[in-house]
Write a structure and sequence with these properties.
Blueprint (H helix, E strand, L loop, with lengths): L5 H12 L18 H13 L3 E10 L2 E10 L4 E7 L2 E8 L2 E5 L2 H5 L4 H7 L3 E4 L7 H4 L1 H9 L6 E9 L2 E8 L4 E6 L6 E5 L5 E5 L24
Antiparallel strand pairs: 1-2, 1-11, 2-3, 3-4, 4-5, 5-6, 7-8, 8-9, 9-10, 10-11
Length: 227
């Protein structure tokens, strides 16, 4: 699935821009008995019915290591951090408006010390036409165009466990990346393992996600910076 090729590639590009056991066991939801396409359909239906998820993990991308720590809601809110080689970019979406922020050390690697001193710790509003960060902060892009959008034939792997939860593996034949699907309860995605390394976890499904806009005094217009 593009979870390993498209999604992780999108993650690397965006960071640089500012960068399961026994299907017949007790409590089984039956997906392990289905063919791969039918399993994927069940996963999509479960995700469509979810309200939120926490995304965490790390993976290699374009010679660097990218780490994710994000919470998304199906209503469009998002909050969290994308870290590229130790430099963190904070992302926030509230009621349709998105911002990014980073510390001075992050900005020094991109705009030099004078502008970095002005940008550090401040929020910059993301233009609604800018889709650079959609792979991280847009529910539909993350799932429908990323994790749950196969780039090649999908086959069924083993019944196993992922982070202690019973799962069935779906394999993307393009890179042998694995998507782990819960075989108890709702057939939600539990996580992915990239064909080229890295693991991303999907947890805290349907938990409350609290987001608030940044204070007005902490929002800065880069066009008005001096230097």
């Amino acid at each position: 699935m593009r979870c390993t090729r498209r999604l992780l590639r999108l993650a690397g590009v965006a960071a640089a821009a500012v960068l399961v056991l026994g299907a017949c066991g007790a409590g089984s939801n039956g997906v392990a008995e289905l063919d791969p396409d039918a399993i994927l359909d069940q996963v999509k239906e479960a995700v469509d019915g979810a309200t939120s998820v926490h995304i965490s993990g790390e993976f290699p991308s374009q010679g660097t290591k990218v780490a994710l720590d994000l919470s998304l809601t199906s209503q469009g809110d998002a909050t969290g951090t994308v870290t590229n080689d130790g430099l963190a970019l904070n992302l926030l979406t509230v009621d349709g408006t998105s911002w990014y922020s980073a510390d001075e050390a992050f900005w020094e690697t991109r705009v030099g010390p004078e502008l970095a001193a002005q940008l550090g710790g401040k929020y910059v509003e993301i233009a609604k036409t800018d889709t650079t960060f959609d792979a991280f902060i847009d529910w539909s892009t993350f799932w429908d165009k990323g994790v749950l959008s196969p780039s090649d034939t999908v086959t069924k792997g083993n019944e196993s466990t992922f982070e202690g939860e019973a799962a069935i593996e779906l394999i993307d034949s393009s890179d042998n990346g694995l998507l782990y699907v819960a075989t108890t309860g709702e057939p939600l995605p539990l996580g992915i393992k990239g064909g080229e390394g890295g693991t991303v976890l999907f947890s805290d499904w349907n938990a409350d996600v609290s987001v608030t806009p940044p204070p007005a005094e902490d929002v800065i217009d880069p066009a008005k910076l001096s230097g």
